[in-house]
Structure formats: structure tokens, C-alpha cells
């Protein structure tokens, strides 16, 4: 049994909508996005002793074998430097989330490393103290620190309250084509130079998945069309999700190529995911907050 004090989950981030609302002088894009977290996750463990090292395992580990500077190690070095200590110990990353796929797996791993090492090294640093380090590691890392649904502004670092999520299910599907985030932002710039969207209008809470899907349908993901131009398989994934019985809304997450479908309950989503092509990466379940399920498989509040 792993020592849970030395283990963390790194849940997938889903951008339920993503509007590009402007561009900074340095080229980074200003975003308005509702980010939520799924039950699909990587796992990170820590073994003290020895110099800093990373061991990779799990079904998606192969995609990272050639990665020269894993985000988990960058997070460890940055935290050690900020804390004025030497980095050390072995991080074991169990990789389940497809790499470069718009669900922030690397960002979630980096945030998990900050949380885990803050405990393991006896620093006890909370989110507020880790946030500036997170922002230096990537635009998506701050929201992954707490891994709870949040509205993202700025380039991703400005976080505010999200609408309360209803019992809803989520199918994730990826055609197994990696998409590099900078290439997708560049393609958007070429397709819509200077064209920006307004911020989305969202309520404080949704009573059910149907109401959530109706409001989200009035928003979009501004990176979806450029991602399809670079990777036409995204359109196939969206069509397959929309054809699943019970799918209320289908959209791409982040810069792709992973797409999500929204369902009434986690159980409905888990059942629907099995109908997608087995050559794709696919997952069905529910939303999580801080790594714990929000609702049971049948859609009852978790813990009720
Ligand atoms: C698009 C989003 C939406 O949540 O998700 P993913 O598709 O990566 O999951 C994020 O903004 C990605 O965040 P992250 O993957 O951490 O990006 P970073 O490493 O900071 O930046 C990678 C590159 O993406 C572009 N970039 C990123 C964020 C942003 N707000 N504007 C940008 O233009 C820049 O070209 C930057 O060099
Ligand atoms: N632990 C990690 N997991 C995934 N990608 C990583 C990791 N460390 C470094 N990377 C690099 O970060 C890039 C973006 O990864 P990822 O977070 O999976 O993309 P996205 O945010 O689009 O889902 C990858 O192409 C990879 O080169």
C-alpha cells in the first residue's frame, strides 16, 4: 500500500468553454474559460532519499520517455530553490492521461509535485504560497493546484468562482494525435487575426446537466476550429461523441485534441464511453474536486 501522505492524484483539467478575449504584448493570449476537473487522473508518489530522480510508469509513460525536462522535475527544482534547500528523492509518475492533449496532464503533474513535495519536505506551503511558483511553470498550473472548478482569466493565472456544477457525467476521447499548444494558438491567430470573443455569461449554479449544456452551448472553444485545421481527426471525435445516446453537448478541451461529451450522470457517461472506437483514448465518469468525486456514479452528492 502506498503511503498516502507521500502520494497525490493529478486530475485532468477540462475547459468547458474557452474564449480568447485578447492578446498580451508578449504574444500570450488572454482567456476566459471555465475549467473543471475529471476523475481521469495521473498519480504521483514520492520516495525520500538520494538525489532528485523521476521514474515513469503507467499506460501513457512511453510518450514521455524522450521528454528532456519533465514538468514534475521542473516543479521540484523550482520549489527547492524557493525553499532554499537541495532537491532530493524519487518521484514516481504513473501516467494515465495522454500527453499534449488539451487536458493539462503535465500541468496537473506539476501542481501535484508542488503539493506533494511541500508536504514531503516539511514545508507546509498552502496554495497561496505555491501559486506564484505554479504560474512560472505554465499558464494551466495555477488552476491545477486546488484541482477544483474555477473560472480562469488573464493568461490562466487569474482564478475566480465557478458556477456550482450539477450531477453530470463526462466522456473524454482523444484520437491519439498529439497537438502542441503553441501551434494551435498560432493557427487561431492566422485564421482570426485580431478577432476576439466576449467573456461568457454564466449563472452562479446549474440545477442539472441539461441546464448546464444549454448555457455552455451559447459559448464555445475558440481553439476548436484551428485545432481541426491542424488535426482533422478532432472533427471525427466530436461527431462520434454527438452520436452517443444521451450526449447533451460535445466540445474540444483546451488546445485539443481531447474532446468531451456531457451526460446526465457519471454512470451514463461511463456506459457511453465504451461505444467509442477502441483505438482512441477514452474515459467516462464524473467531475471531481480536490481529487474527490463531486457526485456518485448515479448522480447523488458524494458522501450523502
Ligand atoms: C490552452 C490551455 C487552456 O487551459 O490548455 P491546454 O490545451 O494546454 O491543456 C492553456 O492555456 C495552456 O496552458 P499551458 O499548457 O500551461 O501553456 P504554457 O506552457 O504556459 O504555454 C505554452 C504556449 O501556449 C501559448 N499560450 C498559452 C497560454 C495562453 N494563455 N496563451 C498562449 O498563447 C504560448 O504560445 C505558450 O508559449
Ligand atoms: N509530466 C508531463 N506530462 C505531460 N507532458 C509533459 C510532462 N512534462 C513535460 N511535458 C511536456 O509538456 C507538453 C504539454 O503536455 P500536456 O500538459 O500533456 O499538454 P496539454 O496541456 O495540451 O494537455 C508535452 O508535449 C510534453 O513535452
UniProtKB/TrEMBL annotation:
<keyword id="KW-0067">ATP-binding</keyword>
<dbReference type="GO" id="GO:0019288">
    <property type="term" value="P:isopentenyl diphosphate biosynthetic process, methylerythritol 4-phosphate pathway"/>
</dbReference>
<comment type="pathway">
    <text>Isoprenoid biosynthesis; isopentenyl diphosphate biosynthesis via DXP pathway; isopentenyl diphosphate from 1-deoxy-D-xylulose 5-phosphate: step 3/6.</text>
</comment>
<dbReference type="Pfam" id="PF08544">
    <property type="entry name" value="GHMP_kinases_C"/>
</dbReference>
<feature type="active site">
    <location>
        <position position="140"/>
    </location>
</feature>
<dbReference type="InterPro" id="IPR014721">
    <property type="entry name" value="Ribsml_uS5_D2-typ_fold_subgr"/>
</dbReference>
<keyword id="KW-0418">Kinase</keyword>
<dbReference type="GO" id="GO:0050515">
    <property type="term" value="F:4-(cytidine 5'-diphospho)-2-C-methyl-D-erythritol kinase activity"/>
</dbReference>
<dbReference type="InterPro" id="IPR006204">
    <property type="entry name" value="GHMP_kinase_N_dom"/>
</dbReference>
<feature type="active site">
    <location>
        <position position="13"/>
    </location>
</feature>
<dbReference type="Pfam" id="PF00288">
    <property type="entry name" value="GHMP_kinases_N"/>
</dbReference>
<feature type="domain" description="GHMP kinase N-terminal">
    <location>
        <begin position="70"/>
        <end position="145"/>
    </location>
</feature>
<dbReference type="InterPro" id="IPR004424">
    <property type="entry name" value="IspE"/>
</dbReference>
<feature type="domain" description="GHMP kinase C-terminal">
    <location>
        <begin position="208"/>
        <end position="279"/>
    </location>
</feature>
<dbReference type="InterPro" id="IPR020568">
    <property type="entry name" value="Ribosomal_Su5_D2-typ_SF"/>
</dbReference>
<dbReference type="GO" id="GO:0005524">
    <property type="term" value="F:ATP binding"/>
</dbReference>
<dbReference type="InterPro" id="IPR013750">
    <property type="entry name" value="GHMP_kinase_C_dom"/>
</dbReference>
<comment type="similarity">
    <text>Belongs to the GHMP kinase family. IspE subfamily.</text>
</comment>
<feature type="binding site">
    <location>
        <begin position="98"/>
        <end position="108"/>
    </location>
    <ligand>
        <name>ATP</name>
    </ligand>
</feature>
<protein>
    <recommendedName>
        <fullName>4-diphosphocytidyl-2-C-methyl-D-erythritol kinase</fullName>
        <ecNumber>2.7.1.148</ecNumber>
    </recommendedName>
</protein>
<dbReference type="InterPro" id="IPR036554">
    <property type="entry name" value="GHMP_kinase_C_sf"/>
</dbReference>
<keyword id="KW-0547">Nucleotide-binding</keyword>
<comment type="function">
    <text>Catalyzes the phosphorylation of the position 2 hydroxy group of 4-diphosphocytidyl-2C-methyl-D-erythritol.</text>
</comment>
<keyword id="KW-0808">Transferase</keyword>
<keyword id="KW-0414">Isoprene biosynthesis</keyword>
<dbReference type="GO" id="GO:0016114">
    <property type="term" value="P:terpenoid biosynthetic process"/>
</dbReference>
Amino acid at each position: 500500500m502506498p503511503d498516502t501522505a507521500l502520494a497525490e492524484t493529478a486530475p485532468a483539467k477540462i475547459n468547458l468553454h474557452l474564449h480568447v478575449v485578447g492578446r498580451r504584448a508578449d504574444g500570450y493570449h488572454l482567456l476566459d474559460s471555465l475549467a473543471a476537473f475529471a476523475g481521469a487522473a495521473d498519480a504521483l508518489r514520492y520516495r525520500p532519499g538520494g538525489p532528485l530522480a523521476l521514474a515513469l510508469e503507467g499506460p501513457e509513460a512511453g510518450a514521455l520517455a524522450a521528454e528532456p525536462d519533465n514538468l514534475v522535475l521542473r516543479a521540484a527544482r523550482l520549489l527547492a530553490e524557493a525553499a532554499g534547500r537541495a532537491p532530493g528523492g524519487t518521484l514516481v509518475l504513473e501516467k494515465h492521461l495522454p500527453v499534449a492533449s488539451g487536458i493539462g496532464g503535465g500541468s496537473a503533474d506539476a501542481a501535484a509535485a508542488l503539493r506533494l513535495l511541500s508536504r514531503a519536505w516539511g514545508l507546509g506551503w498552502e496554495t497561496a504560497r505555491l501559486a506564484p511558483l505554479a504560474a512560472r511553470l505554465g499558464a494551466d498550473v495555477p488552476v491545477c493546484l486546488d484541482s477544483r472548478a474555477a473560472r480562469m482569466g488573464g493568461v490562466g493565472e487569474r482564478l475566480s468562482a465557478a458556477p456550482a456544477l450539477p450531477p453530470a457525467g463526462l466522456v473524454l476521447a482523444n484520437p491519439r494525435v498529439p497537438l502542441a499548444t503553441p501551434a494551435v494558438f498560432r493557427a487561431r491567430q492566422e485564421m482570426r487575426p485580431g478577432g476576439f470573443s466576449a467573456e461568457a455569461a454564466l449563472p452562479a449554479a446549474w440545477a442539472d446537466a441539461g441546464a448546464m449544456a444549454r448555457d455552455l452551448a451559447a459559448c464555445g472553444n475558440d481553439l476548436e476550429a484551428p485545432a481541426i485545421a491542424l488535426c482533422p481527426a478532432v472533427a471525427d471525435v466530436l461527431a462520434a461523441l454527438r452520436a452517443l445516446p444521451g450526449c447533451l453537448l460535445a466540445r474540444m478541451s483546451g488546445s485539443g485534441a481531447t474532446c468531451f461529451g456531457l451526460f446526465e450522470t457519471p454512470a451514463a457517461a461511463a456506459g457511453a464511453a465504451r461505444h467509442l472506437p477502441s483505438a482512441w483514448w477514452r474515459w467516462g465518469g464524473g467531475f471531481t474536486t480536490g481529487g474527490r468525486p463531486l457526485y456518485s456514479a448515479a448522480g447523488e452528492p458524494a458522501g450523502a
